[in-house]
Each structure stands twice: as structure tokens, then as C-alpha cells.
């Protein structure tokens, strides 16, 4: 089945709705199992049939998956049930999926065909993040998701992201626990080469989305090495207010590191782009998108230094999607998503029960 020179080709598929670092981590693990990674992404119609409306449309989801640095090729409109025909058509040796359960609308395991043919491998699911959980966070009016585990009111989060009278190990809300190992796995660890033009951009990059992707692609075209400065949760909350950021700093670091246009991330970067920062990273150009620039606490322009140095450029990504617009999409369709999440949890619990009965 493999290509010439014994190239191992790996297939991964999914909805990849609201692509988060959990998806990226599964893709990273799958790529480690072979040489060439093909990712099949389901269409809007397929997702709506099997699990309810996706948050992002298919064009947005295809683009997001293409931007993940471990992906070699994306297949659009991949079938919801993984078939041997799909694997054969793209010369893939096997399929990889996380150790959670994915089912069709009638409760069938979507990987039963490839499992039966022994062309299925599993990777570890990333604890503490799921699309269901993120939707739940967005529907919360409080900032519960920024508190420590001892302050976290699981019932309050659960009431929205799942039916809190039930507990599914896959859909249930958990705390994401960051480790240096995880950051190292996501980071390239490469230094800029002599003569590289270094581009610096800064922001929240909350709920990493296709608008961020388009902006970073434009920034990457301006130079050779893109550094992203990520503001801390406190800084983001200060200038965004309300329930922001939705993803904490560690989660945002992994989401940005997974993007193929990014070379390095500054964790908890200062809001103001200072002379010290520019000199330390040898920054040749600082870029900002079309989003409004909030002044610093003393009312000054956070980009004053790069502007004085004639090293500042506004970029138009051609995409007006913002984190706020995504939250508005969710709230607008709140009842649909709450129903979808509840249905998903109930379905998973039935499968769990069946698995226990079969085991006994």
C-alpha cells in the first residue's frame, strides 16, 4: 500500500469544527506514525446529518486544517464513515483516530470498517479540551474557565456544555493541565537563520480561527521568521473585558504554535511593543491587522516604538472574522448547540453502557 521508497501514508479524518489544540495534537501524533499525512474533512451537510450544525462552514474548516503544520494534504468532503475505499484511493496504509468514540446518527462506530480490516491505529486524546467544552465556555456569562481547579464550579460549566446529570468521559468538561513537554512537542525550536527578516505580531489570538490564519499567512509573506507575542489572560481581559479570553494563555500558545506560518511564540508578551523587545528579538517589522488598537493604560500607542523606527505595517487579511463574531454565532444558535451537546453526551453514555455489558 505504501508509496515508493516505503513511504508510510497516514489517513486522519474528522469534522475539525472550531479547530483547537486537541485536534492539532491528534494530527501531530498521527504524523509521527508515518511520513505523509492526509486529512479528510467532512462537509457541512455530513456533519449536520450526523451531529448537528457545525460552528464553522466547510470552507473555513478546510482552510484551518491546511494551516496546521503537520498536515501534508487535505481531502475535502470526506465521508463521515471511514471506508477502506478512502484509504485505498489515497494510498494510505492506515487510519488514526483519538481514543474517544465517534458515531453516526444511528450510533454506529464510524471506524468499524477500518478496525475490522486492521488498518486502524489510536492516538491519545488531549484531556481538558473539546469543541463541546469550548462551546460551553462561550455560553457562560462568568469567567469560570479562568479560575483554578479548586474554584471551578463543574455543575455550572456542565449545565451548558453537557447535561450535568450525566458524565461522559469524552464530552465532559475537564481542566487542561499545561506541561513544558506539551509546549516542546508543539514548538519547532528553530532559530532564525542569518539574514532572515524577522516579523513580530502581537495579540490575544483567542479561539484561534480562520481570520487569525489569514492574518498570519499575510504576516509570513512579509518576512522569513514570524514571532507571535501572546498577551496574558489579565491583559486580554483588561482590553477585551467580559468573558475574555475564552481560551487561557497556555491553550492559546499551543493553538498558535500549531500554525505553519508561525516560527516562535512569546508567552505573556507585553502589551506595548517596546524598544527592548524589538532589540532582543532583532525585529525588522511589526505588523497589525485591521482590528482596533486599544491604547496602553497611560493612553499611549502600544506601537509607538516600531512606528518611530519606520518598522510598522498594517495588514489587511481580507477576512473580517473576529473572536467576538464567533461567540455571536454560538449565542445566536445557542439552543441548537445545547441540544447537540446533550444528544452527544447521551449517545456516548449508551455506548459506554453497552461496552461495560459486553465486557462483563
Automatic annotation (TrEMBL):
GO molecular function: ethanolamine-phosphate cytidylyltransferase activity
BP GO annotations: phosphatidylethanolamine biosynthetic process
Pathway the protein takes part in: Phospholipid metabolism; phosphatidylethanolamine biosynthesis; phosphatidylethanolamine from ethanolamine: step 2/3; Lipid metabolism
EC number(s) given by UniProt: 2.7.7.14
Keyword Transferase: yes
SUPFAM superfamilies linked: Nucleotidylyl transferase
Keyword annotations: Lipid biosynthesis, Lipid metabolism, Nucleotidyltransferase, Phospholipid biosynthesis, Phospholipid metabolism, Transferase
Family per record: Belongs to the cytidylyltransferase family.
Entry protein name: ethanolamine-phosphate cytidylyltransferase
Species the sequence originates in: Octopus sinensis (East Asian common octopus)
Amino acid at each position: 500500500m505504501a508509496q515508493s521508497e516505503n513511504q508510510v501514508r497516514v489517513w486522519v479524518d474528522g469534522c475539525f469544527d472550531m479547530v483547537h489544540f486537541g485536534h492539532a495534537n491528534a494530527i501531530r501524533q498521527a504524523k509521527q506514525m508515518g511520513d505523509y499525512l492526509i486529512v479528510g474533512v467532512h462537509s457541512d451537510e455530513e456533519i449536520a446529518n450526523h451531529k448537528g450544525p457545525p460552528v464553522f462552514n466547510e470552507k473555513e474548516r478546510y482552510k484551518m486544517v491546511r494551516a496546521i503544520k503537520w498536515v501534508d494534504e487535505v481531502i475535502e468532503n470526506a465521508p463521515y464513515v471511514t471506508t477502506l475505499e478512502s484509504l485505498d484511493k489515497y494510498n494510505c496504509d492506515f487510519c488514526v483516530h483519538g481514543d474517544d468514540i465517534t458515531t453516526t446518527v444511528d450510533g454506529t462506530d464510524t471506524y468499524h470498517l477500518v478496525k475490522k480490516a486492521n488498518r486502524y491505529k489510536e492516538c491519545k486524546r488531549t484531556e481538558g479540551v473539546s469543541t463541546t467544552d469550548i462551546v460551553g465556555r462561550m455560553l457562560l456569562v462568568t469567567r469560570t474557565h479562568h479560575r483554578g481547579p479548586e474554584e471551578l464550579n463543574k455543575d455550572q460549566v456542565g449545565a451548558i456544555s453537557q447535561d450535568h446529570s450525566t458524565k461522559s468521559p469524552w464530552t465532559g468538561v475537564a481542566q487542561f493541565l499545561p506541561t513544558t513537554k506539551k509546549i516542546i512537542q508543539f514548538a519547532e525550536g528553530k532559530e532564525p537563520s542569518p539574514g532572515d527578516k524577522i516579523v513580530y505580531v502581537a495579540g490575544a489570538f483567542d479561539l484561534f480561527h480562520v481570520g487569525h490564519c489569514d492574518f498570519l499567512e499575510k504576516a509570513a509573506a512579509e518576512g522569513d521568521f514570524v514571532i507571535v507575542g501572546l498577551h496574558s489572560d489579565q491583559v486580554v481581559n483588561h482590553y477585551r473585558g467580559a468573558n475574555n479570553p475564552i481560551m487561557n494563555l497556555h491553550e492559546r500558545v499551543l493553538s498558535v504554535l500549531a500554525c505553519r506560518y508561525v516560527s516562535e511564540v512569546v508567552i505573556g508578551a507585553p502589551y506595548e511593543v517596546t524598544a527592548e523587545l524589538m532589540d532582543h528579538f532583532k525585529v525588522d517589522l511589526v505588523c497589525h491587522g485591521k482590528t482596533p488598537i486599544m491604547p496602553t493604560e497611560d493612553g499611549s500607542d502600544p506601537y509607538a516604538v516600531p512606528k518611530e523606527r519606520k518598522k510598522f505595517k498594517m495588514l489587511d487579511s481580507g477576512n473580517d472574522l473576529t473572536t467576538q463574531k464567533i461567540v455571536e454565532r454560538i449565542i445566536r444558535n445557542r439552543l441548537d448547540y445545547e441540544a447537540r451537546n446533550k444528544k452527544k453526551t447521551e449517545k456516548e453514555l449508551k455506548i459506554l453502557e453497552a461496552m461495560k455489558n459486553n465486557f462483563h
